[in-house]
Amino acid sequence: MFPALVGALYVPVAIWLGMAVGLVVAYRRSTPPVVLRLAVAFLALWALLATTTAVWVLAHGGWPAVVALARSPDRLFQPGAWPLWVAGAVGSFTVFAGAFGLNQLVGRGFLRLLRTHPLPWPRGLLVPAVTTTLLAFPSPTPEAFSFALVRRGPGLRVHRHEYILLSSGLRERLATDEVEAAIAHELGHLRDLDGRYLTFLRTLARMMRWDPVIGYLTSCLTRREEFRADAEAARITGQPMALARALYKAAAFPVPVVAPLGVVTFLSGRGRRARSDTVDRIQRLVELAESGMFPEAPRGRR
pLDDT (tens digit, 9 = 90+) per residue, 268-280? Predict the structure, then answer.
């Protein structure tokens, strides 16, 4: 029998394994908010385990300690290891708090540095229930992205303010219905809580580049939620081909689009993988259009 303290140290591992199973099931069957909340909890516990392991290794001699721990992982769960778990908890909390703070700081920096100005809400789209501001910024690159900021209201209350930013290059290169489709795509991200959770996870992944688990999971979630946001945009506008045309025109721009820190963008990344993902998205939208679920409205004029 393990002492009570040793058994308590195993609790995070048991919960983490349970969340891993739940995340796999939810990834295939559940809605985006459930998946993203599970992913944050999963990565929080993973950060606790990884940080505690790193503290133990540093406290026991570096690389020789790695070999010793690989041979006997139960060393982490000995009665005298609880101070290391406290240090690991403090370290992982610091990383997560730093990622959240950096995410908020970057969002506020965009509003100041990109020289944004407000745009009227498109007539063809319903105004969201949550406070959402549509902004334009000068850039020849056809790009759009969205994020959410936490702001303090009267008293101690806080509220979420969502922003959708469109570049001048996107508005100039795309037809009216295609611009509306790009906005609807960003609304799909915001409705599925990507602006709250996925943006945070991407920031965390960039801060912890040495951790392959966080990077791989964030990459999978990003790809999944792009497909989800495309489907939501098709549902909102009823014109999947408008979004397909918008993606094609944006992808044809000669300069690769680089995503800002942590921000979920309409079309971001470079290299073969990014091009392959864009082709997959266009193919899925074409299949939606050909399914007969969305009778295509007349194309907008430039």
Answer: 555 577 778 889 9
In-domain check, residue 300: no
Distances (CA, A) of 279 to 103, 252, 295: 29, 12, 22
Element (H, E) at 192: none
Q: Are 54 and 210 in contact (CB under 8 A)?
A: no
Q: How far is CA 16 from CA 12, 20, 40, 115, in A?
A: 6, 6, 11, 43
- The answer to whether residue 275 sits within a structural domain is yes
Report d(CA 64, CA 245) in Å as an integer: 56
Report residue 137's pLDDT band, with 50, 70 and 90 as the boundaries: very high
Looking at the fold, whether 142 and 232 belong to one and the same domain comes out as yes
Q: Is residue 140 part of a domain?
A: yes
Alpha-carbon gap, residue 26 to 22, rounded angstroms: 6
Same domain, 123 and 88: no
Q: Which two tokens stand for residue 127?
A: 């105004």
> What is the CA 152 to chain-centroid distance, rounded?
23
Amino acid identity of residue 58, one-letter, is L
Q: Which domain holds residue 197?
A: 114-290
The token pair that represents 169 in the structure block: 């290059």
Mean pLDDT of the 84-113 span? 87
